[in-house]
Amino acid sequence: MLKLYGFARVNGGARGKTRDLRVLWTLEEIGLPYQVVGMDHPNHDLDSPAYRALNPFGQIPMIDDDGVVVSESGAILLYLARKSGKLIPHDLAGEAQVLRWSFAALTTIDVPVLSLWFVDLCGGKASKPSKALHDWAEMCLKQLNRWLTNRRFIATEDFTVADILMTHVLDAGTDEDMLKPYAWRANHERLERTRSGRGQYDKHRTAGVPASANSQRTPRLPPTQRKTRRRALWQG
Ligand SMILES: N[C@@H](CCC(=O)N[C@@H](CS)C(=O)NCC(=O)O)C(=O)O
Q1: Which residue's CA lies nearest to atom 1 of ligand 1?
Q2: Residue 195 and residue 21: Cα distance in Å, rounded?
Q3: Which residue, 25, 42, 53, 206, shows the most beta carbons closer than 10 Å to its own?
């Protein structure tokens, strides 16, 4: 059965916002059976040599579909859509629109939004680079907003994985004040329905995925690396 590697335990600030939830949302939408492998981030499950051999970046999400290992949330969603034949059109032109808007979510929108969050997190709030990033992000969000006006879905006439990616990028818990006006109502309602209506999703969102019985504890990183990593990612 398809295995999804997601967080069993993660810093409170990141809970409910992590990228494994994109995959869970997709799996729930397409109805493929799956099993969750819960990774304990504070205990360094992602640093184990076994996990790094599969994903050198030591991050979630990752799937193992009977030996087909895929990391990177965008790649995973597109793989699942192609595999199931759902959430993606079957013609090349339609598929191109889904690719186009999936990349827009993960690059055009996520890059300035995430960079701003990171600069602010590292003490750059109100600095010149922070302001510049804020303007860049705002510009892209306004442009996106124009595209979304009077559209039900971002890429085609139907709901696709590009909608999941864009909705989740806009729900990333980075600069919430900036993102709130752009949260995309139509899909947020669907996200909320998935969250509240499906036990799995809600459980994962609030408490992280269940800890895997065989998840191995790994030696702690040296303090300097630990500090940098924590500061960068899961402060709070
Ligand atoms: N580009 C990757 C980013 C994955 C990513 O940033 N994962 C975070 C959780 S949302 C993670 O595993 N962080 C833990 C770490 O790097 O130690 C994707 O889209 O899947």
Answers
A1: 72
A2: 10
A3: 25
